[in-house]
Amino acid sequence: MAPYSFSVSLLVKSFSLLSLRCLTSEASCPPKRPLNGYMRYVQQQKPIMANQNPEIKAVELVRKIAQQWRSMSPEQKQPFQEASLRAMEQFKVDLKRYQAQLTPAQLQQQAQEKRRRMAKRKTIRKKRELTNLGKPKRPRSPFNIFMSEHFEEARGATSQAKMKSLLEDWRNLFSHQKQVYTQLAEDDKIRYKNEMKSWEDHMVEIGREDLIREQTLSAKKKPAAKAPAAKKVTKAKTEKKAAATAKSKTTTKTTKSRSTPKMC
């Protein structure tokens, strides 16, 4: 399956990062991870396709290259994939040589940086997944609603200047003027609550309980936790009542035995 999700901007950014990754000497620069077979094909075909189709947008250009790659036979893909395998073997040798030059502190720093990058990627992937699953947007604050309504006519040439002027305008509003946006924010909270309930119910239906909020799971577990406690209280009341009945019978029996006259 061809990776259609690649965009030209992402490709250009990746190539730029690879070229600017190390600005120091060659010895201190880590080896660059080689491109896979598909990316090698994109790198080869991009200038050719751009010359043949100068009017096509960048995203459409990459889409056409991806379609070509998908329609290619295994024999046609083989040269690109074999070149990638050879480059990967060389990369492993160069990486081992490079890491042998590093101090323990540098190795630890690299490991921490790798964990940070992986955590960031995981967060991005999860956010993208939640968006694809239609998770409702969080409710907006009163100021956010005010800002979205007046951003276009706000003072300032840049976004930062506009936001600063809007913040000043917000602080100068009277209480009854802010109340309008406060009420809108409250309505948005109700909207979010209702949409989240429907969304989480749907996640349960499709087997994605892992995406449900902790507070929702806790709320669902509370009734089940109260049931044993109620049974325990009922059992204690039953035992107490049985003990009282037994004591009453014993007292009655003793009274009767005392009131009965002795036979000579």
Automatic annotation (TrEMBL):
<keyword id="KW-0539">Nucleus</keyword>
<keyword id="KW-1135">Mitochondrion nucleoid</keyword>
<keyword id="KW-0597">Phosphoprotein</keyword>
<keyword id="KW-0010">Activator</keyword>
<keyword id="KW-0805">Transcription regulation</keyword>
<feature type="compositionally biased region" description="Low complexity">
    <location>
        <begin position="243"/>
        <end position="264"/>
    </location>
</feature>
<keyword id="KW-0238">DNA-binding</keyword>
<dbReference type="GO" id="GO:0005634">
    <property type="term" value="C:nucleus"/>
</dbReference>
<feature type="signal peptide">
    <location>
        <begin position="1"/>
        <end position="27"/>
    </location>
</feature>
<dbReference type="InterPro" id="IPR050342">
    <property type="entry name" value="HMGB"/>
</dbReference>
<keyword id="KW-0809">Transit peptide</keyword>
<dbReference type="GO" id="GO:0003677">
    <property type="term" value="F:DNA binding"/>
</dbReference>
<keyword id="KW-0804">Transcription</keyword>
<feature type="domain" description="HMG box">
    <location>
        <begin position="136"/>
        <end position="200"/>
    </location>
</feature>
<keyword id="KW-0496">Mitochondrion</keyword>
<dbReference type="GO" id="GO:0006357">
    <property type="term" value="P:regulation of transcription by RNA polymerase II"/>
</dbReference>
<feature type="DNA-binding region" description="HMG box">
    <location>
        <begin position="31"/>
        <end position="99"/>
    </location>
</feature>
<comment type="function">
    <text>Binds to the mitochondrial light strand promoter and functions in mitochondrial transcription regulation. Component of the mitochondrial transcription initiation complex, composed at least of TFB2M, TFAM and POLRMT that is required for basal transcription of mitochondrial DNA. In this complex, TFAM recruits POLRMT to a specific promoter whereas TFB2M induces structural changes in POLRMT to enable promoter opening and trapping of the DNA non-template strand. Required for accurate and efficient promoter recognition by the mitochondrial RNA polymerase.</text>
</comment>
<feature type="DNA-binding region" description="HMG box">
    <location>
        <begin position="136"/>
        <end position="200"/>
    </location>
</feature>
<dbReference type="InterPro" id="IPR009071">
    <property type="entry name" value="HMG_box_dom"/>
</dbReference>
<feature type="domain" description="HMG box">
    <location>
        <begin position="31"/>
        <end position="99"/>
    </location>
</feature>
<feature type="region of interest" description="Disordered">
    <location>
        <begin position="217"/>
        <end position="264"/>
    </location>
</feature>
<keyword id="KW-0677">Repeat</keyword>
<dbReference type="InterPro" id="IPR036910">
    <property type="entry name" value="HMG_box_dom_sf"/>
</dbReference>
<feature type="region of interest" description="Disordered">
    <location>
        <begin position="106"/>
        <end position="143"/>
    </location>
</feature>
<comment type="subunit">
    <text>Monomer; binds DNA as a monomer. Homodimer. Component of the mitochondrial transcription initiation complex, composed at least of TFB2M, TFAM and POLRMT. In this complex TFAM recruits POLRMT to the promoter whereas TFB2M induces structural changes in POLRMT to enable promoter opening and trapping of the DNA non-template strand. Upon metabolic stress, forms a complex composed of FOXO3, SIRT3, TFAM and POLRMT. Interacts with TFB1M and TFB2M. Interacts with CLPX; this enhances DNA-binding.</text>
</comment>
<dbReference type="GO" id="GO:0042645">
    <property type="term" value="C:mitochondrial nucleoid"/>
</dbReference>
<protein>
    <recommendedName>
        <fullName>Transcription factor A, mitochondrial</fullName>
    </recommendedName>
</protein>
<feature type="compositionally biased region" description="Basic residues">
    <location>
        <begin position="114"/>
        <end position="128"/>
    </location>
</feature>
<dbReference type="Pfam" id="PF00505">
    <property type="entry name" value="HMG_box"/>
</dbReference>
<keyword id="KW-0732">Signal</keyword>
